[in-house]
Design a protein that fits this description.
It is a single chain. The protein is an alpha/beta fold. The protein is 27% helix and 24% strand. It has a nine-stranded mixed β-sheet with strand order 11-10-9-8-12-6-13-16-15, sandwiched between helices. The chain has a five-stranded mixed β-sheet with strand order 2-1-3-4-5, sandwiched between helices. A two-stranded antiparallel ribbon has the order 7-14. The longest helix has 17 residues. The model has no long low-confidence stretch (mean pLDDT 93).
């Protein structure tokens, strides 16, 4: 019975945590619920990066008439409370100060500044701690955060649109609309959830893309353009000020650039290390085919999102070959098929 109750309230924590999607990175999404004798007396989630964490908002939400129940309640939280001073004080200290006797945690925070220290601080103060409730779900919502800290690279989402006959561009190389307006809006929503967005030189030259979230009310990601020789003309959209932009290049001495070594065949690992150092937690790679295939062949990807439109191109540039992948989600939007894959070893 207790296990079922723990899962019930942790599910609510997960619902709350997701409300912070697109607003809290590079922090994780976290939800918290305060429960007394089976009744919720407070709820909260991390709303905006740099502002109060979920536990603080949860405690502050308890009505004045129920404040006396806080020292008798159980705190449910998706992620281990922090024990360090960041932009806000440690949440573990708050729970101890509020004399909350029991804390149920979804998953341990593997970020080195926390990494079990929050749990240790709670237990040292006599708090009863339970961990591992809906752990896989709690890790899944923060897969970008965990990948960044555990693999020391950004979480990589590969995305492309392909025709019904498997091409991403016609033979003449001219831009053509493959996906419909509803799928396009979804793509802009996807962009708003990532910290970076990447394209290769040929895509930048052929499409003159903006790579922003014009069709969705979210923050545009940092634009990352693979452009070894800085071929993208200065009048192209990628040089405007719609979003922060960096050109990954071999050309030294220019602003808005990240200089990497293109010669030793180690481009992607070295580039991802640079992005990790820059604090970019996740990147959506939107093309072209050569860049996408480089990520696929190197195994440096975490999620693949493929939109298959209803149009037929009859030839042209073939879409990337995903290889052996695991289908996680499939949907149909006004004739377009949207499929989300992960590597076969993925547990998500």
């Amino acid at each position: 019975m207790e296990h079922a109750q723990h899962e019930f309230f942790m599910q609510r924590c997960l619902q709350l945590a997701r409300l912070g999607d697109g607003h809290v990175a590079p922090n994780p999404m976290v939800g918290a619920v305060l429960v007394h004798e089976g009744q919720v007396i407070g709820e909260g989630y991390h709303r905006v990066y740099g502002q109060a964490h979920a536990e603080v908002n949860c405690v502050n939400s308890v009505p004045e008439g129920l404040r006396e129940l806080v020292p008798k309640a159980t705190m449910y939280v998706t992620l281990e409370p922090c024990a360090h001073h960041g932009k806000t004080p440690p949440c573990a200290d708050l729970l101890v100060a509020q004399k909350i006797p029991r804390v149920v945690i979804g998953c341990v925070d593997t970020f080195s500044a926390v990494a079990g220290r929050g749990i240790a601080k709670l237990e040292a103060a006599g708090v009863e701690v339970t961990t591992g409730v809906l752990e896989a779900d709690c890790r899944q919502i923060n897969r970008r955060f965990f990948t960044y800290h555990e693999k020391k690279r950004p979480y990589i989402v590969l995305k492309w649109a392909q025709s019904a006959d498997g091409y991403i561009a016609p033979e003449n190389g001219q831009p053509v609309r493959i996906s419909n307006q509803y799928a396009n809006r979804l793509v802009h929503r996807w962009r708003s959830a990532e910290m970076g967005i990447m394209v290769g030189t040929q895509t930048a030259l052929a499409d003159n893309p903006r790579l922003t979230t014009r069709l969705w009310p979210g923050k545009s990601p940092v634009r990352l353009v693979i452009d070894r020789e800085l071929k993208v003309p200065p009048h192209y959209h990628l040089w405007n000020n719609e979003a922060p932009t960096f050109f990954i290049t071999a050309v030294k001495g220019r602003t808005q650039t990240i200089v990497v070594d293109f010669e030793n065949g180690n481009l992607l690992p070295s580039l991802l290390a640079e992005l990790h150092s820059a604090g970019i937690q996740s990147v959506m790679v939107e093309g072209g085919a050569r860049l996408l295939e480089s990520f696929i062949s190197s195994g440096l990807w975490d999620e693949m999102r493929v939109i298959t439109g209803s149009v037929l191109l009859g030839g042209g540039l073939k879409a990337p070959a995903p290889g052996h992948v695991q289908l996680q989600e499939e949907a149909h939007v006004m004739g377009d098929r949207i499929a989300i894959y992960t590597p076969p070893s993925s547990s998500t």
